[in-house]
Amino acid sequence: MDHHVDNHCYSPAQLKYKNVKLIGSCCSILTQEIISAIDLFNDDFNTDTKINLAYLLGAPILLDTSNFAAALKDNQWTDEDTQAFEWL
Questions:
Q1: Which of 3, 35, 51, 68 is the most buried (most CB within 10 A)?
Q2: 66 found inside a domain
Q3: Residue-range definition of the domain harbouring residue 46
Q4: Is residue 33 in some structural domain?
Protein backbone atom coordinates (compact mmCIF):
# COMPACT_ATOMS: atom_id res chain seq x y z
CA MET A 1 0.00 0.00 0.00
CA ASP A 2 1.51 3.34 -1.00
CA HIS A 3 0.65 6.86 -2.08
CA HIS A 4 3.73 7.43 -4.26
CA VAL A 5 4.45 6.51 -7.87
CA ASP A 6 4.87 2.76 -8.23
CA ASN A 7 8.49 2.15 -9.24
CA HIS A 8 7.85 -1.60 -9.54
CA CYS A 9 10.56 -2.41 -7.01
CA TYR A 10 8.75 -5.60 -6.04
CA SER A 11 7.64 -8.33 -8.39
CA PRO A 12 3.97 -9.32 -8.23
CA ALA A 13 5.05 -12.69 -6.82
CA GLN A 14 6.47 -10.92 -3.76
CA LEU A 15 3.23 -9.09 -2.97
CA LYS A 16 0.19 -10.49 -1.24
CA TYR A 17 -1.74 -7.30 -1.92
CA LYS A 18 -1.09 -4.10 -3.83
CA ASN A 19 -2.95 -0.79 -3.61
CA VAL A 20 -1.14 2.23 -5.01
CA LYS A 21 -2.96 5.55 -5.39
CA LEU A 22 -1.55 8.99 -6.04
CA ILE A 23 -3.24 10.74 -3.14
CA GLY A 24 -1.92 12.73 -0.21
CA SER A 25 -1.48 10.06 2.45
CA CYS A 26 -1.08 6.33 2.71
CA CYS A 27 -3.25 6.59 5.83
CA SER A 28 -6.08 7.78 3.59
CA ILE A 29 -5.75 4.57 1.60
CA LEU A 30 -5.72 2.53 4.81
CA THR A 31 -8.83 4.38 6.04
CA GLN A 32 -10.58 3.60 2.75
CA GLU A 33 -9.68 -0.07 3.22
CA ILE A 34 -11.15 -0.02 6.74
CA ILE A 35 -14.33 1.65 5.47
CA SER A 36 -14.73 -0.96 2.74
CA ALA A 37 -14.37 -3.77 5.29
CA ILE A 38 -16.12 -2.10 8.23
CA ASP A 39 -18.22 -5.19 8.96
CA LEU A 40 -15.02 -6.92 10.07
CA PHE A 41 -14.49 -4.24 12.73
CA ASN A 42 -17.92 -3.29 14.09
CA ASP A 43 -18.12 -5.98 16.78
CA ASP A 44 -14.73 -5.06 18.22
CA PHE A 45 -15.00 -1.29 17.93
CA ASN A 46 -15.65 0.64 21.09
CA THR A 47 -15.38 4.37 21.70
CA ASP A 48 -11.75 4.22 22.83
CA THR A 49 -10.73 2.16 19.82
CA LYS A 50 -12.43 4.58 17.43
CA ILE A 51 -10.78 7.59 19.05
CA ASN A 52 -7.34 5.95 18.98
CA LEU A 53 -7.81 4.96 15.34
CA ALA A 54 -8.80 8.51 14.45
CA TYR A 55 -5.63 9.89 16.05
CA LEU A 56 -3.42 7.13 14.62
CA LEU A 57 -4.59 7.67 11.04
CA GLY A 58 -5.76 11.27 11.16
CA ALA A 59 -2.51 12.86 12.31
CA PRO A 60 -0.42 11.53 9.39
CA ILE A 61 -3.17 12.54 6.95
CA LEU A 62 -2.94 16.11 8.24
CA LEU A 63 0.85 16.06 8.01
CA ASP A 64 0.98 14.54 4.53
CA THR A 65 -1.60 16.99 3.18
CA SER A 66 -0.06 20.05 4.86
CA ASN A 67 -3.27 20.42 6.86
CA PHE A 68 -5.27 20.47 3.62
CA ALA A 69 -3.69 23.69 2.37
CA ALA A 70 -5.98 24.95 -0.40
CA ALA A 71 -3.05 25.89 -2.64
CA LEU A 72 -1.90 22.25 -2.64
CA LYS A 73 -5.23 20.64 -3.55
CA ASP A 74 -4.93 18.15 -6.42
CA ASN A 75 -1.15 18.51 -6.21
CA GLN A 76 -0.41 17.20 -2.71
CA TRP A 77 -3.84 15.97 -1.65
CA THR A 78 -7.20 14.98 -3.14
CA ASP A 79 -10.86 14.72 -2.20
CA GLU A 80 -10.19 11.11 -1.21
CA ASP A 81 -7.95 12.40 1.59
CA THR A 82 -10.64 14.76 2.89
CA GLN A 83 -13.27 12.01 2.75
CA ALA A 84 -11.02 9.62 4.69
CA PHE A 85 -10.20 12.30 7.27
CA GLU A 86 -13.85 13.27 7.70
CA TRP A 87 -14.82 9.63 8.25
CA LEU A 88 -12.26 9.38 11.04
A1: 3
A2: yes
A3: 23-87
A4: yes
Is 76 within 8 Å of 65 (Cβ atoms)? yes
Count of domains forming the chain: 1
List pLDDT tens digits, range 4-46. Answer: 666 677 777 876 766 777 799 999 999 999 889 887 776 666 6
pLDDT in tens, 59-75: 999 999 999 999 999 99
CB 25 within 8 A of CB 3: yes
